[in-house]
Amino acid sequence: MPKAKYRVLDQLKELLQNSKKVTTQQVAKKAGLSRGVTSSYLSKLYHEGLIIKSGTKPVYWQIAIQGDAFSAMIGADGSLKKIVDECKSAVDYPPHGFPLIITGPSGVGKSYLASLVFKYAQEKGVIAKDANFAVLNCADYANNPELLSSVLFGYKKGAFTGANTDMPGLVDQADGGYLFLDEVHRLPRESQEKLFVLLDSGDFYPLGENQKKKHVDVRFIFATTENLDNTLLQTFQRRVPLQVQLSSIADRPLLEQCQLIEHFFKKEAVDMQRDIKVPYETIKQLINTRQIGNVGSLANQIKLLCAEAFRKGQDASILRISLGKKDGKYEDDASWLIRGTEHHQPIESQITDYAPSLGTLLSTLEKQEQRPGKINEQSLTITRFLRDTRKTAANLVLDKYFTNYIRQELIQAVQQISARYGVVKEVSQNKLNRAAQMISLLQKTLDLPTASAVLDLAKKHYPRTAYLCRKTMELVDIRVDSDWFELLLLYTIFDHEASQIENQDLLAILVCHGGGMASSICSVVNDLCGNYIFEAFDMPIDVSNQEISHQINNYIKQQGRKYDGTVLLFDMGSLSNMYREVKSLLDTDLLVINNLTTAVALDIGLQIQQKQEFKKIAEKAEKYPNSMNIQYYEGISQKQNIIVSCMSGVGLSREVKQILTSVLQSDVEIITMDYRDLKTTLQNHDHLYFKNTCFVLTTADVPEQNVAEVINIYDIMDKNGDSQLRVLLEQMGENKRTINQLMDELLRFFTIGGIKGRLRFMNPEVVIPEVQDITAKFEEYYHLNLSGKIKLNLYMHIALMFERMMLNNDRPVQELDVKDMPEVEEEFYSVARNIFHDAETKYNIQVDDYELSLMYELFKPMLIKE
């Protein structure tokens, strides 16, 4: 009479004829036993591998599908399925199968696969149950071909000294079974040739026998770590029709890597009869460690970890595994708890053909994306799919250890995304479990249907959220189809916040040089705003504007949508150059702000969050501190403008601006600029930049250019200059009365009397004669006859320079590099120092190289002309 547990098994089989899965209570009722007793029997049957279970409350039971010898191999119905199918063909092919050769790096399981081929042949009945599996490692005899022949083919009595009797070889032992030649690349040429006849006919001659051949029925398996073409004769290769290649462990799917780790920990736990707890970080390190010896190396590393844990905690109820610096941190949700009390069973990856149901899922999601709706519909569809799959496929056993690994990877990634972008701050365990289970299911599915069509639609509806999904994917070590992965993150992790993330009409970017300042500010602002407002780019200190614009361009392309405007905040560099570089990438308004601070970024972020219009944000930015510069339009100004640049300093330019502002009636903006900035701006910009500029007023000639009308203020003392300025003012809309008033004010300003009025500290009655004397010395040295307007310009410049240097006597002296200076300029510096020497001594000042360079600009047209 069968044992009670097997009678329970029979009752379960009967119940399963009418149902796909059965609960413990149903089995107890059928068997007429209590639920507790039935549960005990079912548990024993489960540990014997006769039944499988799924679910938790209630637990469902099914009859385990008994596999063949290859079922014990992790990946047999996954990444190794094609190899397993080919190996089966090599066994099943009538009448005697055919030989095969297994290639791959050391430690990938070539010998193990060969043993499974042998066991499968026994199961199929193509060889006897008691057939032999003879093994020879050719490397052991690589340097002794004669000894190799004797071991392989046997020898006759007297074949060599010491051969006192006939001795059968491995070929004889393998008769009726399999001969496995490992490291076959070490087989010498003559030994390969001896195998030809054996492979072709089954005939061979033992060593020392030349007359009577022997016949055997042997199946062959070969293995090597080397390239076949470089090590084996082509004639030998032609006799082995099947070559299968095993990949290194790093190239195996992540699911199988986790299962291998679980398998070896489980084996050690059972051997020690102890439960062990393996931290998530240890699992991750094992996965990311390059295993030189592949599966064999991994097994040894795990054995050593378990041995160390056993040494440290022999009396502990649970042995704790440690690898690295995280010793002592064992949170239950971040660890694998592996029981050592259960019988060790080979792990089955249980990959199932879920492709049809996944295809149906994609069709449903695509229909939902094609019509207006909310993303929670798609999220609900994913949840329903998982539930229905569990109900209709009781054999859906999602590897709990692998699923936990994925879950921990997602937790860490989402935490980093939350810290940087201010979203998904609280993700429920159900969401994380759902995402992890779906990814685990995808890993168990061969020939995944493509999700690209659904993802393309989703990106159109949720482009900003999809961008965050891709950033999340970059943070996890999970190799799964990228389209599916992005789609699952969108529908399971980001679904509740997608609407908020998409509710932004402006694109905002932070750029900082060196360190992680941009990322730091980005994290603070996004966190305080509670939404993904800014993206940050931490750039090397010496990066060019072109490289920055390249990075920004890539980011803009990834957005997949249009914005009402873009805001760029950066820390240093040319404002106008940065504006021009980035503006060319956009078809919308652009606001660029330099001298980035957290306060300004937060102010901008809050305005964007509050749906403030771009123009309002730009107008408010104009009121930021003077230390910050902004630009949000093409050109130097959006308004009609006049640029004023006086070589004698910004103070003089501001006084000219005051005159223009008080007299002119037009709505015109007066812009003051440093003389050198004016030269650079004129050289580096085109007409479009000066499209609203009426003209430029300056006290020195500028290099010839064709982008803006430039008038030297001193030219208005001449008839031609006077007429030119009057025409330009009339074109602005000024009447003759205001024009005459302005001309009178400027003439009065740029006279000896005007110079005297500009001096606020020095005595003009003393300074002006000295300035006139200095100018005369320059005329005398260079044999010049300066015009009245040039003299006035020099008088104004030198007098104001003296006063400016006396008031700022503690400023650092500016020296220029004269190494590559033209000879005429170098001479001017030497002459000027002599001419200014007496004034420097009298006023206790030093005319530095920068001031001399400005003087040279005034004299240069006359000196070069010579």
From TrEMBL:
<feature type="domain" description="PRD">
    <location>
        <begin position="762"/>
        <end position="866"/>
    </location>
</feature>
<dbReference type="GO" id="GO:0016020">
    <property type="term" value="C:membrane"/>
</dbReference>
<keyword id="KW-0808">Transferase</keyword>
<keyword id="KW-0238">DNA-binding</keyword>
<protein>
    <recommendedName>
        <fullName>DNA translocase FtsK</fullName>
    </recommendedName>
</protein>
<keyword id="KW-0547">Nucleotide-binding</keyword>
<dbReference type="InterPro" id="IPR036634">
    <property type="entry name" value="PRD_sf"/>
</dbReference>
<dbReference type="GO" id="GO:0006355">
    <property type="term" value="P:regulation of DNA-templated transcription"/>
</dbReference>
<keyword id="KW-0067">ATP-binding</keyword>
<dbReference type="InterPro" id="IPR002078">
    <property type="entry name" value="Sigma_54_int"/>
</dbReference>
<feature type="domain" description="PTS EIIA type-4">
    <location>
        <begin position="505"/>
        <end position="636"/>
    </location>
</feature>
<dbReference type="InterPro" id="IPR004701">
    <property type="entry name" value="PTS_EIIA_man-typ"/>
</dbReference>
<dbReference type="InterPro" id="IPR011608">
    <property type="entry name" value="PRD"/>
</dbReference>
<dbReference type="InterPro" id="IPR003593">
    <property type="entry name" value="AAA+_ATPase"/>
</dbReference>
<dbReference type="InterPro" id="IPR036388">
    <property type="entry name" value="WH-like_DNA-bd_sf"/>
</dbReference>
<feature type="domain" description="Sigma-54 factor interaction">
    <location>
        <begin position="73"/>
        <end position="307"/>
    </location>
</feature>
<dbReference type="GO" id="GO:0009401">
    <property type="term" value="P:phosphoenolpyruvate-dependent sugar phosphotransferase system"/>
</dbReference>
<dbReference type="GO" id="GO:0016740">
    <property type="term" value="F:transferase activity"/>
</dbReference>
<dbReference type="InterPro" id="IPR036390">
    <property type="entry name" value="WH_DNA-bd_sf"/>
</dbReference>
<dbReference type="GO" id="GO:0003677">
    <property type="term" value="F:DNA binding"/>
</dbReference>
<dbReference type="InterPro" id="IPR027417">
    <property type="entry name" value="P-loop_NTPase"/>
</dbReference>
<dbReference type="InterPro" id="IPR036662">
    <property type="entry name" value="PTS_EIIA_man-typ_sf"/>
</dbReference>
<dbReference type="Pfam" id="PF00874">
    <property type="entry name" value="PRD"/>
</dbReference>
<dbReference type="Pfam" id="PF00158">
    <property type="entry name" value="Sigma54_activat"/>
</dbReference>
<dbReference type="GO" id="GO:0005524">
    <property type="term" value="F:ATP binding"/>
</dbReference>
